[in-house]
Amino acid sequence: MKVIFLTGSHTRHSYIAWRLHKANLLSGLLVEEREEFVPSPHAGLKEVDHHNFVRHFKDRSESEERFLSTPESDSIRGIPVLRVTMEELNSDKVKEWIQKQNPDVVLSYGVHKINKNILDILPKYAWNIHGGLSPWYRGNITMFWPFYFLQPNFAGMTVHHLTAQLDGGPIVHHSVPELVRGDGIHDVASRAVIQVAEDLIQILILLQDGKEINGQPQKNSGKLFTGVDWKPQHLRLVYNHFDNDIVDRFLDGEFGVQEPPLIKAF
Predict the structure, then answer these.
(1) C-alpha torsion sign, points 245, 248, 254, 256
(2) Can you list the residues of the chain whose pLDDT is less than 70?
(3) Would you say the pTM of this structure is higher than 0.85?
(4) Interatomic CA distance for residues 250 and 179, integer angstroms
(5) Where are the alpha helices (DSSP H) in the chain?
(6) How far is residue 139 CA from its own chain's centroid?
(7) d(CA 219, CA 214)
(8) What is the C-alpha separation between 111 and 86, in angstroms, rounded?
(9) Going by C-beta distance under 8 Å and a sequence separation of 6 or more, which residues neighbour residue 70?
(10) Secondary structure class of 210 (helix, strand, coil)
(11) What pLDDT digit, counting tens, does each position of 99-130 carry?
């Protein structure tokens, strides 16, 4: 079974590629060069928002380095690798590269939207890994919003069919990490990446063994968050009001419990 992975260049993306390769489940890798991982604060922010912005993205970088960095000695070798820019993602070059690999499974995570000219050549099993639990948290920054709405147990990942509708394809699998006391917002997000990598390995092995894996249509459209929904001022709730201890307060029962009805492939 040939699996190719279309992914970004950040640590979280490289971790899943590394994990699939280590499990002998990766036959080709396309890497889209992404933007700088630690952005600069916007001009004109109040001191509190400037401080929170710097803290938030610094903590994110440190958490992903701690949880998701992979050893240099274990770098991916022996498979075709294509590196592209955002502008090249939907190009004929990429289309021809995918066709040349002749994959049985295509996975995507951390790349920009894939256009119809690429979608049309993908195999039956073409899945996106979405950082967020669909349909409740779709779109952008979807690992932040569960914390803002005091639902850290809704912080997870969705494997769904790749379609033209953003994060709207039939759901194959929901993956959620264990909530560990003492974890902050970025630790939960990092654990979610680790968990979805392990879940994907199990799903791909089932496919390899001949099991049919079908998705379930998303019946509820949920909320599609866009980049403009998020403002640095939203960080005040996480850091100034709760001091990034939302997980502990949730585990203590402070917010009540509403469990998401999860879809599982195994």
Answers:
(1) positive
(2) 73, 221
(3) yes
(4) 9
(5) 11-22, 47-68, 92-101, 116-119, 145-148, 185-208, 235, 246-251
(6) 11
(7) 15
(8) 8
(9) 14, 15, 18
(10) coil
(11) 999 999 999 999 999 999 999 999 999 999 99
First to last CA, the chain: 19
Domains and CATH numbers, the chain: 3-251 (3.40.50.12230)
Question: Which residue from 162, 159, 197 is spatially nearest to 177, judged by alpha carbons?
Answer: 197
- 8 Å CB contact between 153 and 143: no
How far, in Å, CA of 105 to CA of 125, rounded? 5
CA-CA distance, 32 to 154, in Å (whole number)? 28
Comparing CA positions, the residue from 153, 126, 120, 154 lying closest to residue 225 is 154
CA 177 to chain centre: 13
31 DSSP β-pair partners:
7, 83
In the prediction, which pLDDT does 221 show?
Answer: 63
Distance CA(138)–CA(223), nearest Å, equals 6
The 10s digit of each residue's pLDDT in 201-245 is: 999 999 999 999 999 999 876 788 999 999 999 999 999 999 999
80: preceding bond cis by omega (within 30 degrees): no
Rg from Cα positions in the chain: 19
- 45, 53 Cβ separation under 8 angstroms: yes
* Closest residue by Cα to residue 236 from 39, 43, 51, 41: 51
